[in-house]
Fold this protein.
Amino acid sequence: MSQPVCLLCERDSEVVPLISLIYQRRNIHVCPQHLPVLIHDPGQLVGLLQGAETFRPADIHD
C-alpha cells in the first residue's frame, strides 16, 4: 500500500501534516497549506479529483 500524500503537492506525512477526507468512498489527503484550495478555489482540483468541476467556492462574507 502506498504512503498517503497531499492531493495537490504530493508531499507525505514525513514532510507535512496531512488531513484525511472521504470523498466518493475514497480516502483523500490534503496538507494544511492546500486546505484553502478545497474551500476557496476548488477549480484547481479539476483533473486531480473526479467531479471537482462541479464544486463551488465557499460563499464567505467578511
In short: The helical segments are 35-40.
